[in-house]
Amino acid sequence: VGGLRSQASQGNYPIPAGTRDILPEEMRELRQLSSALLETFQRFGYGEVSTPTMEYEDVLVQGDERAAGASYRLFDEHGQVLALRSDMTIPIARLAATRFADAEPPLRFCYLSHAYRAVRPQRGQQREFLQAGIELIGADAPDGTVEVLEVLTAALDAGGLPRARVGLGHAGMFTALLQEMGVPPADGRPVLEALSRHDLVELEQRVAALGLDERRRRTLATLPQLRGGAEVIERAIEVGGDDVRAPISRLAEVSGRLGERGIAERVIFDLGLVRDLGYYTGAIFEVYDPALGHVIGGGGRYDGLLARFGHPLPACGFALYVERMHVAQAEEDRARAEGRT
Amino acid sequence: MSEPLRLAVSRGALFGETLDLLERIGVDTAVLRSDSRSLMFPGGEVTVVTMRPGDVPTYVEAGAVDLGITGKDVLMEQHERVVYELLDLGYGRCRMVVATRAGSRFADDLERRLGAVRIATKYPRVAARWFEQSGRQAEVIEVKGSVELAPLSGLADGIVDLTATGRTLEENDLEVREVIAECTARLVANRVAHKMRHDAIDRIVKRIGNGAA
Questions:
Q1: Do residues B156 and B193 share a domain?
Q2: What sign does the CA torsion over A184, A300, A63, A93 have?
Q3: How far is B183 from chain A (nearest CA, A)?
Q4: Residues B143 and B42 in one domain
Q5: Which of A197, A200, A293 sits opposite B192 (nearest CB)?
């Protein structure tokens, strides 16, 4: 029945920009994709949970100052501020800290849930979007990180995206590197800001203004451009020497373990990777498929988050954007049909 | 052989020098230089796609092209677009400035008396940010054509615009009051392509880096 148009369907009864109705044909495929993802998570021992769509804003802010970027707030009948969740990481951290306070870690949870964020116009962004993901709580790096990466690559295969890759970086690496070089935090901030805007031209200008020697300057300018296989870590040490060794050691540990799990070729090490949520502390991920120009998922380690809910445990997880994965599937099919893969 | 990288090139002030740059790194630009009406120019290593300067970030962000060349002014105006800015190509150098009628204290007086200045510009977001950052209030008026007309006709008290030599400003009796930024041509990359095709992109970046002025 898709494609049927009448006067009434042409805008007299609009729905908010960035939301959508899903009709049977698309729904069937989305359901299939969602089930394949959940089955994969469960096969690895992750139990599905569900949390309220809206939470007290105070509680979300406990996890992240910006409530992980929550955009929609309302008052309940007592005047309390409620926020629509913008991701599942903080709600599950809250759930783990309260409902599983006495449980023996590690805890393994998965979810298939809608989340809500503001959209910028004309970008195909969704105000309401479906996320499928896992949270591994109480397993430290590098073991926990490697397990999460293994589940992630299995999920991408189950989702029909064997060409998809995971970008892997480290949230604190650049900060640690600046510290290692004795750059005062105030001077380092503009450098970090340029990095988070992906502006490598400004980064180089800011680095030049720090008054470091030639090698250190080159290290700071080159490192964010290094991405590729495990050789990237060698290359970073080659460029930066002792300054780099400690900041990069956590990534190097993960690198060594990926081969054992047979997923080394699914991971792109990326020393310039940054994510904009405040709670990440260690490894960070972004998920890409060559058929799509947008990121289809992300995640990382947030070893400090559970402590903010009074239950200090290391943790790691990821979320896949189910609708974008579906678009990537369709694009992959088209690329195959056109013989481009 | 993998697919060629797609490179968006602005037709506009930067076009000529961009073609010179492409030629220096071994891209055949003969068809591009002919007055072909085509928009896409397939090549072995690079497929060139031509478009208006302001569209480059849109195509790059969406991944419709892997790389793009456009001015820093365009990137500043569309700063919320997520693209990787890889190289300063050095050409197309000009300044983003605030200019008012020459010799007048007009804008200062107005700011004192009315609490705000009216600024005409093709860069409404750059202008708004600049005045906001410097703690002043401005009423920003977006215009599409010759910005110099706005203060002459009384539409605005001043303008925010690009100037290379300053001649157009001078001819219209305008003078530079503040410099917001130095702008040059930049090479930008799509976020996914930057990772998935890192080898091919790094090869091009290296060659452009060696060939750039």
A1: no
A2: negative
A3: 12
A4: no
A5: A293
Give me the CATH number covering residue B153: 3.40.190.10
Count of domains for chain B? 2
- Residues B84 and B12 grouped into a single domain: yes
> Is B2 exposed, middle or buried, given 0-12, 13-18 or 19+ CB atoms closer than 10 A?
exposed
Regarding whether B159 and B145 lie in a shared domain, the answer is: yes
Query: Tokens in use for A12?
Result: 């007299």
Instruction: Tell me: do B147 and B190 sit in the same domain.
Output: no
Q: Does B105 touch chain A (CB under 8 A)?
A: no
Q: B136 and B192 in one domain? A: no
pLDDT digits (tens, 9 = 90+) for A99-139: 999 999 999 999 999 999 988 766 767 899 999 999 999 99
Alpha-carbon gap: A325 to the closest alpha carbon of chain B (Å)? 14
Contact B3 A270 (CB under 8 A): no
Give the pLDDT confidence score for residue B9 in this predicted structure: 96
| Long-range interactions of B112-120: CB distance < 8 A, separation 24+ | B117/B157, B117/B158, B118/B155, B118/B156, B118/B157, B118/B158, B119/B156, B119/B157, B119/B158, B119/B159, B119/B160, B120/B147, B120/B150, B120/B151, B120/B155, B120/B156, B120/B158, B120/B159, B120/B160
d(CA A179, CA A235): 20
| Contact status of B186 with chain A (Cβ, < 8 Å) | yes
Query: Minimal Cα–Cα distance from A224 to chain B, Å?
Result: 11
pTM of the model: 0.89
Q: What is the DSSP letter of A187?
A: H
Count Cβ atoms below 10 Å from residue B37 Cβ, excluding itself.
5
B18 and B81 inside one domain: yes
Count Cβ atoms below 10 Å from residue A335 Cβ, excluding itself.
15
Print the domain residue range for B10.
5-92+184-212
- Judgement on whether residues B117 and B168 belong to the same structural domain of the protein: yes
- Is A114 part of the contact surface with chain B (CB cutoff 8 Å)? no
Residue of chain A minimizing CA distance to B89: A201
Q: Which residues of A touch B208 (CB under 8 A)?
A: none
Tell me chain B's radius of gyration from C-alpha atoms.
Answer: 19
pLDDT confidence of residue B213:
47
